[in-house]
């Protein structure tokens, strides 16, 4: 994606720390206009200045957005499209891992709300801007833990029996299923959509895990630079210009599990997401 890269706009969620921040820095270094969302505007201002200082690219912008609120996502998109009528790259990077049952402001289990429904809503809202850009890319940051995910349509929010690992892994499976279903729906367009696992990365994810788990994660984790590498690859590389509906790890396409290839499950999940988001989808 080297042609007129300085004219291209990338929107990335969860870029104030970790993988998202590293991704934003590398895309700014490449010359793109980088826009990111943040809950904390004071922190966002500091991050913007850091990205500009490190890259020499002053085309860095941010908007306030709480991904745990459908209304906030919708309001953000209304502001974004006024300033950026077209969008070349959307990276749904933000994610959480809540170890206890919590609900979003919309009354939905928080892992599901932020890790699946938020990118579902934001992506669908941005389709017009993505289409306007011509050849554009959607990148969904999932996790290798999607392989442990199981979709239970009778208790999607785990209200009956909440457990941290299954709650997280099912949202990452849902994101892979969303990627594949969206790729089918966008088949006749010039928009591609792919998912990825960044690897086991040193981030704030799992900050409320027990101490021994946090220490183990720090010892085993790779750097944020390595974690961001596949996102950057999918954003910039010409080799994947026409690749869509695929899953990547270490910048290599990977086969996905039978459950992640279940087209009926993907369609059912899509319909459920639409029912959750009916008041916010245009």
Descriptive report:
This protein has helices at 18-29, 41-55, 70-83, 110-132, 164-185, 211-220, 224-236, 263-276, and strands at 9-12, 33-38, 60-64, 89-92, 136-141, 191-197, 247-249, 252-254. The chain has one domain: NAD(P)-binding Rossmann-like Domain (Rossmann fold). The longest helix is centred in the middle third of the chain and has 23 residues, at 110-132. It is α/β, with parallel strands linked by helices. It has 8 helices and 8 strands. The chain is globular and about 50 Å long.
In short:
The chain has helices at 18-29, 41-55, 70-83, 110-132, 164-185, 211-220, 224-236, 263-276, and strands spanning 9-12, 33-38, 60-64, 89-92, 136-141, 191-197, 247-249, 252-254.
Q: What would CATH call the architecture? A: 3-Layer(aba) Sandwich
Summarize the amount of helix as a percent range.
Answer: 40-55%
Number of helices: 8
The number of distinct structural domains comes to 1
Query: Can you tell me the CATH topology?
Result: Rossmann fold
CATH level 1 class label:
Alpha Beta
In angstroms, what is the radius of gyration? 17 Å
Main beta sheet strand tally, sense and closure? 8 strands, mixed
By CATH, the superfamily comes out as NAD(P)-binding Rossmann-like Domain
The largest beta-sheet arranges its strands as: 3-2-1-4-5-6-7-8
The number of distinct β-strands equals 8
Protein structure class: alpha/beta
Strand content: 5-15%
């Amino acid at each position: 994606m080297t042609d007129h890269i300085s004219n291209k706009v990338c929107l990335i969620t969860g870029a104030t720390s970790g993988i998202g921040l590293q991704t934003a820095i590398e895309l700014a270094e490449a010359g793109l206009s980088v826009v990111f969302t943040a809950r904390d505007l004071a922190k966002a201002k500091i991050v913007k200045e850091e990205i500009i200082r490190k890259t020499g690219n002053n085309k860095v912008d941010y908007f306030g957005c709480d991904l745990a609120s459908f209304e906030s996502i919708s309001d953000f998109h209304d502001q974004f499209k006024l300033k950026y009528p077209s969008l070349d790259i959307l990276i749904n990077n933000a994610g959480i891992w809540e170890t206890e049952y919590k609900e979003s402001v919309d009354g939905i289990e928080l892992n599901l709300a932020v890790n699946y429904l938020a990118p579902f809503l934001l992506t669908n809202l941005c389709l017009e801007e993505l289409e306007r850009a011509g050849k554009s890319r959607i990148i969904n940051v999932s996790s290798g833990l999607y392989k442990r995910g199981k979709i239970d349509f009778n208790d999607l929010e785990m209200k009956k029996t909440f457990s941290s690992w299954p709650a997280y892994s099912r949202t990452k499976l849902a994101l892979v299923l969303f990627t594949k279903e969206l790729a089918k729906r966008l088949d006749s367009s010039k928009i591609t959509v792919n998912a990825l696992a960044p690897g086991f990365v040193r981030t704030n994810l799992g900050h409320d895990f027990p101490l021994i788990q946090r220490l183990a994660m720090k010892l085993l984790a790779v750097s944020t630079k390595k974690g961001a590498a596949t996102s950057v690859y999918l954003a910039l590389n010409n080799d994947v210009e026409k690749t869509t509906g695929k899953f990547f790890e270490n910048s290599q396409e990977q086969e996905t599990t039978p459950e992640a290839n279940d087209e009926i499950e993907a369609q059912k999940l899509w319909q459920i997401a639409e029912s959750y988001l009916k008041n916010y989808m245009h």
